[in-house]
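--- STAGE predict ---
source: upstream dedup step, 1 unique chain passed
mode: sequence only
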Amino acid sequence: MTNPVQLSKKELNKVFWRSYQALGCYTYDKQQGISYMRALLPALQKLYPDPEDLKEALIRHNVMFNTTCAFVPFCLGITCAMEEEYANAPEGTFDPQSISSVKIALMGPLAGIGDSFFWGTFRVIACGIGAPLAAAGNLLGVVLYLVLNLLPSTLTRVYGFKLGYQGGREFLAKIQADGTLEKVTEAAKILGLVVIGGLVPAIVAVPVSLELNMGGGSFILADVLNSIMPNLLPLVLSVVVYHYIQKGVSVNKLLFLLLGLGILLTAVGFFPMG
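--- STAGE serialize ---
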């Protein structure tokens, strides 16, 4: 762009408040991705007044994203800083792919930290203190639960967004000046692929229960496949589904196909019941 453009407090506030809708459009294939893209829209519209540039930015963020909701503003702040840097950078000096790579690389570690603290610690402590008081009819129990549960996440949202945007701008300026941006981008891409790969055995299950009796012995297909490579079938299934998504097959069609296939294989005894 010929004239430098900078996000104002107005656009940043809109992005922040939209971060509260991270679960407002949760889908199977993109999870929080569409809500994340919608939260960025005020910033993207300011940075890319040209419709084609805006379209490119929306496509860039129309991808899978999922992390603890309290850390979504932090990721949005960094993304705003990187989009602002890209919008003002001379052509060919900033790789826009690094924006998505950094976002994807952050979501896994932040989800692990956030779920442990906000779901496994703060909420449990808040319930442990507030529930007995509320059960005794004391309104203070409700107040304490709300304060102990919501205050940490609210502070994380507010200061996380500021830290992500301000820190992201300073960090990007520094690493771009000394030439390490390309290395950081490549490292983020690798880490992002590792995060996505680690999700496969965690969320994809192919519970094979086929067992055959052969000559007094038993042939357990699951044990054979796991001896070749643990979680081989989830990996194969993920690769096949990804292949068809890349070919333009509707995700809804694939979901119904997998549902029907699962029912059929369960009926014939290939998958366990229940």
